[in-house]
Amino acid sequence: MESTQAVTALAALAQESRLSIYRLLVRAGPEGMVVGQISEAIDIPPATLSFHLKTLTPGGLIKGRQEGRYVRYVADFAAMHCLIDYLSENCCGTNRAACVPQISPLTEENTE
Question: In whole angstroms, what is the distance from residue 61 CA to residue 22 CA?
Answer without folding.
Answer: 8
